[in-house]
Amino acid sequence: MKCAIVTGAARGIGLATAKKMLADGWRVVLADWDADELTSVCAVLGDNALPLVTDVSNPEQVNAMIAGTLNWAGRLDAIVNNAGVADFGPIEDTDFARWRAVMDVNLDGVFLCSQAAIAALKAQGGAIVNIASISGLRASTLRVAYGTSKAAVIQLTKQQAAELGEYGIRANCVCPGPVRTKLAMAVHSQEIIDAYHDAIPLNRYGTEEELANVITFLCSDQASYVTGQVVAVDGGFESTGVGLP
Ligand code: NAD
Asked: Tell me: the pLDDT tens digits for 24-77?
């Protein structure tokens, strides 16, 4: 049975992805730094789900996550680097501590988890799926740290695809449009919500499940010749050229 790690899996897009992969017959390690939420969601997911409390920005904890996965499943076939934090702030208000807090999780976390997974992925080939954002594709106000971190994740994905292809490791990036998760709703005012509805060709936010379907596809053998790609799952927003609200 194939095994995947999904980071940031205690809620939102990560939890929906873990559930979809479990339904598709994967064993799934759900990694998150929120121990309480992780324990409560995993209580009902069955024996093919393993919760591992992990801060993706901490190298020791990331190494322990990989070791715990191999100890449990004996293999690793895919890693979904989904853990992330939001930040809406003007450049002049974004002091270095605030900037670092975003980079630590959104960029360093993806780098550390992917790097730690490579040796196990090399054993039989596998997939890396990094979750960036439409904010990494388009510059906008208030997203200096968040948008820059996500743009870096897009480039990191291409680097991974270029370097790891020879080992049968594919790396792809998903850029979600707006989804009504805790992360988004903490920073989306009613004005932003209305503007998104107008700007998105499908005139609505996406759902966690719509993201999970694409992420799971990219992890699967169905995507065996897909690597180095940046897939916007955004109701068509990116194709319009309209600015981010
Ligand atoms: P969410 O807040 O519902 O879930 C994020 C999860 O990541 C939480 O469970 C949180 O505890 C976990 N997490 C945060 N920092 C962590 C760390 N250091 N170590 C381990 N776990 C950590 O948010 P979501 O909307 O489901 O976001 C998932 C991903 O999708 C993020 O990378 C986010 O940037 C991206 N994204 C979301 C949207 C959106 O509108 N919701 C849009 C674009 C991109």
From this structure: 999 999 999 999 999 999 999 999 999 999 999 999 999 999 999 999 999 999
Question: Which CATH number covers residue 49?
Answer: 3.40.50.720
Give the amino acid at 157. T
Please tell me whether the interface predicted TM-score (ipTM) of this complex is above 0.90.
yes
**Domain count across the chain:** 1
Task: State which residues form the domain around 35.
Answer: 3-180+208-233
Q: Answer yes or no: is the C-beta of 83 below 6 A from any ligand 1 atom.
A: yes
Tell me the C-alpha distance between 242 and 72, whole Å: 46
CA 75 – ligand 1 centroid, Å: 25
CA distances from 165 to 62, 171, 218, 232 (A): 23, 8, 15, 22
- Compute φ and ψ for 195, nearest 5 degrees: -65, -40
Burial environment of residue 167 by CB neighbours within 10 A (0 to 12, 13 to 18, 19 or more): middle
Q: Is 206 in the pocket of ligand 1 (CB under 6 A)?
A: no
240 within a domain of the structure (yes/no): no
pTM: 0.98
For residue 126, being part of any structural domain is answered with yes
CB of 68 within 6 A of ligand 1: the answer is no
